[in-house]
Amino acid sequence: MTRFLPALLFALGLLSGPAAADSWPTPAAAYQATRVMDAEGMQMSGRLFHDRGKERWEVEMQGMTQVMILRPDLDKMFMLMPAMNMAMEMPFASGANIPSPERYAGNEPEVVGQEVIAGEETTKYKFEGDDGTGPYAVFYWLTEDGITLRTEGTSAQGSFAMYLDGLDRGDQPAELFELPAGVQVMPADPAMMNPMIQGQ
After folding, report:
1. What integer is the mean pLDDT of 42-54?
2. Whole-angstrom Cα distance, residue 135 to residue 156?
3. CATH number for the domain including 60?
4. Strands (E), 1-41
5. Residues 124-162: pLDDT tens digits?
6. What three-state secondary structure class fits 63?
7. 0.85 surpassed by pTM
């Protein structure tokens, strides 16, 4: 878990980056897809489920299933380890050194152009600036109904790329975004989280 957590938190912070910008659209469709992400040379892929801001991402790492559940409505995210019947609870915007939604709030994106990706019409946006730790530049490709189909960027924390494969729109079961009954929930230890998030 210690090798997996920094990369996953790093990716989640980058991928959710501009969601708080006032003009940034919220996906109008619930959907599922396979998310493929490459952050600092570590590639991860897994099934992604999304519904009105709630997300569930299931990834196989070192023979174990790891599940990240994002609940912006509760200002929390959970790392669920089903095989251990345990979950770790964290604030939604964990990690001071991870690009977070708040850092992009009020930063209006530049519209770069229109592109067709995997048969989907998308608009390409660019966010750039300096978040206090260094300059960043992030590109997002959004579908007409607000789904982020591809993301690429660099920041002081490194570079990353993400895309969705096999996008399938449709209602998602509400229980996907809840912890299973009986799971032991542990709060994240800040003393442990800070060096892990920084990759130390």
Report:
1. 89
2. 7
3. 2.50.20.10
4. 31-39
5. 988 888 767 788 888 889 999 989 899 888 877 778 888
6. coil
7. no
